[in-house]
Amino acid sequence: MSVTALHPPPADLRSLFRRPTASTWVITSAAADDADPVGFTAISVVSVSLDPPLVSFNVAKTSSSLVTLARSRRAALHLLASHQDVVAARFAADRTRRFVEDGTWGWQDGLPRLHDVNARLVTTLTDLVDAGDSFVAIARVHTTSVASPAQHTLLHHAGRFAAPHQIGA
Fold first, then answer.
1. Among the CATH numbers 1.20.1440.20, 2.30.110.10, 3.30.559.10, 3.40.710.10, which is that of 3-166?
2. How far is C-alpha 54 from the chain's CA centre?
3. DSSP state of 151
4. The whole model's pTM is what?
């Protein structure tokens, strides 16, 4: 087996990991002394442990949200509903346009809260693990709120956000 087979170039990994379908989340945070909220779209949220309740997510070292996350050690994780593709795209784009005053968000627990999501987890970061061009954030879940009735979750597949019925279309 060749070394290149064991260590494919990043472009090959990007292509490979576009194939699985993943849930779409928006991670938000704010520092106690900073009125400016931060946030980004993530498809890397994973349950790590039930006892204690831990989740993980990736944050790029170049992320405009990283300094605030590292300083505040708090984050709200929002599982987007299938109709929130515009929200997902907005938090994946220009950071100066993520928190526009359009009624899609407000404040709760000292953190930005997106409205009409399937679930919201309020967490405290317990660790930021160096992982190449990213950090893996490990976060302890303190509170959860789940929409009732639950809506379909917004998915990410093949580089785009879609409702479940749109995958493979």
1. 2.30.110.10
2. 15
3. P
4. 0.88
